[in-house]
Amino acid sequence: MVLGLPTFILSLFWCAAGMSNQTAKKDRMNLVFMFPDTLRAESFSSYGHPLQTTPNLDKFAKSAVRFEQAHALHTQCTPSRVTMLTGRYMHVLGHRTQTHLIQPYEFNYFQILKDNGYHIKYIGKNDAFSRAWRIQ
Q1: Residue 23: CB partners within 8 Å, gap ≥ 6?
Q2: Residue 20 — φ and ψ, nearest 5°?
Q3: What is the pTM of this model?
Q4: Could you give the CA distance from residue 82 to residue 100 in angstroms, rounded to a whole number?
Q5: Is the CB of residue 72 less than 8 Å from the CB of residue 80?
Q6: What are 129's strand-pairing partners?
Q7: HEC readout, the chain
Q8: pLDDT higher for 104 or 25?
Q9: CA torsion, points 56, 113, 108, 1, in degrees to nearest 10?
Q10: Model confidence at 8: pLDDT above 50
Q11: Sign of the Cα pseudo-torsion (30, 34, 40, 46, in order)
């Protein structure tokens, strides 16, 4: 499936907006976002690597949405991740460096999902959210 980042972000918000806090948890779709660091798509078996390099991710990819066309909006990790998490270009609120992270007042899809009754678990290094930001 090929989706551009804006289309993906809009579809995510549409799904989250359509889910009310009263919706049973069993009726909700699970969302897992994986942003591997310094790993190109062709390193994964599910993207055509000839060796079985990622068997568990391959199984997961069979029932998940895989992006065939994705582009980083910045050469540095943090501005690129902030763009993915907020749906805004990094220059809109000054996220052009590795140190200007998402603030509590900024719109981001984790907070939208949380506000709509989803349980949010952030695992791995945090180079996108400031220490002041916490999922309320």
Answers
A1: 117
A2: -95, 165
A3: 0.66
A4: 9
A5: yes
A6: 102
A7: CCCCHHHHHHHHHHHHHHCCCCCCHHHCCCCCCCCCCCCCHHHCHHHCCCCCCCHHHHHHHHCCCCCCCCCCCCCCHHHHHHHHHHCCCCCCCCCCCCCCCECCCCCCHHHHHHHCCCCCCCCCCCCCECCCCCCC
A8: 104
A9: 50
A10: no
A11: negative
Please say whether the beta carbons of 23 and 15 come within 8 A. Answer: no
Instruction: List the structure tokens of 22.
Output: 């009263």
What pLDDT, on the 0 to 100 scale, is given for residue 12?
47
* Confidence label for 9 from pLDDT (cuts 50, 70 and 90): very low
Q: Which two tokens stand for residue 101?
A: 């992270």
